[in-house]
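ARCHIVE RECORD
Type: protein–small molecule complex
Small molecule: nicotinamide-adenine-dinucleotide
Source of inputs: curated submission
Record status: active
Notes field left blank by submitter.
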Amino acid sequence: MWFETDKCFIGGQWVPPLSGKTLTLENPSDGSNICAIARGGAADIDAGVSAARGALSGVWGKMSAVERGRVLTKIGQKVLQRADELAELEAMDVGKPLTQAKADALALGRYMEFYGGACDKIHGESIPYLNGYTVYTLREPHGVTGHIVPWNYPMQIIGRSVGAALAMGNAAVLKPAEEACLTALAFADIAHEAGLPAGALNVVPGLGVEAGAALSTHADVNHLSFTGSVGVGTLVQAAAANNIVPVTLELGGKSPQIVFDDADLEAALPFLVNAGVQNAGQTCSASSRILMQVGIYDRLLAMMVAKYEALKVGPADADLNVGPLISGRQKDIVTGFLGMVEGEASIVARGKIVSDAPVGGHYVAPALVAGVKASHALAQDEIFGPVQVVIRFETEDEAIAIANGTDYGLVAGIWTRDGARQMRLAKAIRSGQVFINNYGAGGGVELPFGGMGKSGHGREKGFEALYGFSVLKTVAAFHG
Ligand code: NAD
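STRUCTURE (tokenized, with ligand):
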């Protein structure tokens, strides 16, 4: 690999973790060891935060918005040029099929272009006030931002979180997941090569309980962005409260797609299935609940069954529909949920694991489960695997109640040709994003994203992220 996999990237240099300890990265497609990575700890996080603080008073902090924009755009271009190499790393590290990994690399490049272009387009405003005053607002960086990201979409999450933070002039410390951190390190190398000044981005791989906890509790971090589970999000929010710093939480989901009798079923079908099995269902915005109205229930279920039975599961480099899960632990969690299918519920279709899939890989054949009660754990809890539950409903009100009947509220899809119903549901559904006659909108770099309820708070992506990664200052000048 072209970067130093067993080191941290701090202050523009590759440095070994101060403890000298490493962790092993596993290839989920076959269970083999990829390489050693740094087991960063509190001392390395401290060094990363110091380097970021130094960058704010150095070259990075003195750059104009236009200059920052040029650097970010150049990073984006270099990411796009190296998208194939990045995709290969991500496929090996996360287990996602190559085509999906390539889409993530392209999205990272696009995020950097988007936020590069936005740097000099976000500004404060002047406010009419008392006679003799001129009042205006300034948008300033928070300072040092801490970014804790999971393993499922490292490149996309780095793009939307670190990209927006840098655009506003913050200096970032990134703690990638211990299960998958190669593209975070590769990104730091590319950004440095593109001219990002030393210390503006620091990467410290390591365990959540060590490096992650050290970053979230660090007294000199001014903003935290966490993407991951509700449990760890709760700890990060408590740490942020302790230091009185703002925090963005991007947590889990149990996102519904609601299909009414008048929907275009052929158009809906690929979205219904892909949104459940993409990245082996390990997607925060996975659509894990499919609500079907009685009139189309039998027909649409048969269509989904056929689609499921054609799904092929295998290693990332075979580039099939579905890859392995990230780890043996994740596989155990998902098979545990499938063990709960009983009574009126049944698995009505499964994808197929190819016969030559390596035995050491963490494969689970996608499962479509019907007859599940909306209150059952299968329909309430985030499974984070290729499992979708189908729930039948009769009326619009019932569909809304089921859709809103979990602790989460991340994404929802509505399939109907009735324009008035589209508008009613878009308002009634408690969710950070609502898609009408589509789902997921192709990555949606430009579209603000975030949760309600236990899906989290704060928004990333689009322009909205730039408000979150900056702080507003009001200046009131009296001149008589
Ligand atoms: P996780 O919470 O276990 O880990 C996420 C990150 O937090 C990792 O980098 C990990 O090392 C770190 N971490 C773990 N313990 C920590 C601690 N005590 N203090 C600080 N950091 C710590 O989550 P996961 O299992 O890796 O990821 C899956 C979860 O992430 C799912 O719930 C999924 O829905 C969610 N997710 C949400 C989004 C979103 O945008 N809403 C996107 C991707 C994933």
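CURATOR ANNOTATION: The domain at 8-252+456-476 is CATH 3.40.605.10 (Aldehyde Dehydrogenase; Chain A, domain 1).
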